[in-house]
Amino acid sequence: MELRWDSVTVDVTDPAGNPLRILKGISGVACPGEVVALLGPSGAGKTTLLAALAGRTRISGGAVTVDGIAKHKGEGAATAAERRKMPKQSVAFVTQEDTLLTQLTVFETLWYASAVRLPAHYSQEERLARVHDVIKRLGLAKVAHTQVGTVMSRGLSGGERKRLNVAQELLTDPPVLLADEPTSGLDHVAALSLVDVLADIAAAGRTVVATVHQPSSRLFRRFTTCCVLAEGRLVYFGPASAIATYMESPPVSRPCPAHYNIADHTLEVVQAIDPTDLGAAWEAAPKTSGGTYDVAAHVRALGADVDEGSVAALDAAKTGAQDSGDKQASRAEAALSAGAAGAEGDADAAETAEPGPADSASARGSPSAPAVVVGVVDPRDEPALGVPVKPLPRTSTASSASSDDDVVVGVSAAVRKAEAALANTRPASAAPPACMRSWGSDPRWPTSWCQQFFALTARALRTSKGSTLTWLMLAQHMCITLVASIIWWQLRQGAGAIQDRLGILFFFVIYTGFTSLFGALTTFPAERSVLRRERQSGAYRLSAYYFAKCAADIPVSCVFPTLIACIVYWTVGLRADAGAFFGYIGTILLVSQVAQSLGVLVSAAVLDFQRSITVSSVLMLGFMLTSGFYSTEIPAVLSWIKYIGFPTYGYSLMVFNEFPADALYQCGSANDGFSGYPCPVSGAQVHDAILPPFATSGPAVGVLAGMYVFYRALGYVALRSNA
Nearest 5°: CA angle at 193, between 192 and 196? Predict the structure, then answer.
């Protein structure tokens, strides 16, 4: 599918509130079979342009279109919703950061992705075959069952993580693939290998656009087309192999020294010359109808007599493409390539060498120098052979005191494609991917809500297995259980032990609340980048993800509270009654779920772990101090807090469960009374002494259940506004 961008402009606002234009009317086109490199110094706007092409940055002017499908649905115009949705399904975006779930293996990462991103009609066997095919294509078979890992735990290497990032996007076989600096942080061999993968994808009829930063000469030759930016301006767009000709020719007039990396030279030129001048030079340069650099027209405009054999071969390539397709075009290209030895020789071996004066003179040419060559460069191979042409005449420019001598003109396969566009003879791409073959019948999402929910729930359970159910947390809970059991071991019966019983009940309400709330704070910050990438790719509904996380948290958050409750209830000697025991377990679980729901709300609203800790600490301490255990005389300015705090209702249920209203507690001595009540003390008197008037068992359960629903619903709203 053809990706075209016309006069794209992006405006933002700086921290001071001033408008700032990042992209200034950038135009270009990327077609099936091409690997387009976005080149430019830092801050040139490469990533912004790529994000605009992917629909992830709002453009202020211009347009981005994805073939005809982006504009039409059958014979009628597509709706606004369809236009918004199409880029997500047809354009895959590989971010620069490794947005991966570190607890999963390579296979698990792709398997769960296939469950939500491949169409619903795919069987399990077809999904499995697709996952294995992508693993094989990306060279990840040897690490298929290796955990992604982190910097602290051994896992995939940097290159393997980059490949896995690409693999996730290749699952749906997208017609357009955008990659933001895929080679950053990789060694030379790993970078070449990854770009070879991108070239293979393009060779299969897909369109590939990637930003690159300081590519080596060998890596740069893998790209068919180059788009050079400088401070948000377009300064070159055309065949990668022709950029040396453009830089050497007037009005730029900056020849690349012999045996020097043309990509490095281009960046140096871009930084040395004012971007406004470079932009004006590009505007004046001859272009094809597709907006790419027309090297042949430029050479002729400068007065060079291109050898008729080269022109005839180029025409034959166009004619062959019109008549018999790619096969005849390839033969014409081969005929054009036949001739003298390649112009660059062993450039790879000397790409880092400093050019000497002799090299520079040789590169510029001289009156006695032999004829230069027009060569066809395959982006996947070394420089090809060429045929001689007459040297260019000397020309003077205002930006250079020296004359412009002979120019080495590079005509590549990308030039042939650009020229052939005039006659609609671009190489035919492979059949469109499944997600685009029947656009009108495709649902809004690849899979149903239920399928997304179950797949994401399974993934959430798998990731939580390694982060929550750990031996460390088990040790923490067992230590607290042991200490509490020793302190409150087998409490006495009677009025003298009422205060101690209230202490253990309140402690475990607060402990359960703290552990459940703080355990939920990592729910979304840890997966923020993954969620954003998958949402922007249109992988699933946010509601399916959110409720899957909620469902996965339920069994995890119930294990430890139940285990602690079963031990502590009998070691401290609480009321020996089956109903009271299960009432205690139920209260602990209800408090745990409400506290976790509050933690999910804070996590979704803040999306920053450090800030969420601060917010949660203030909330829990406020609830604890106003719940009625430490003081029943709360100032009016703070008394309202107890009505919205779950510890108040959880503690009330614990008291009702342990001290039935009709129970009597005898005194062992004259000092065994409770809160001024004479012996025997009834359960109703205990309730009146420590609980607020509004606290009763039935409404307390209803309030906690309502808090659970309210916190979960508000958490979804918060996540939707921040995701």
Answer: 85
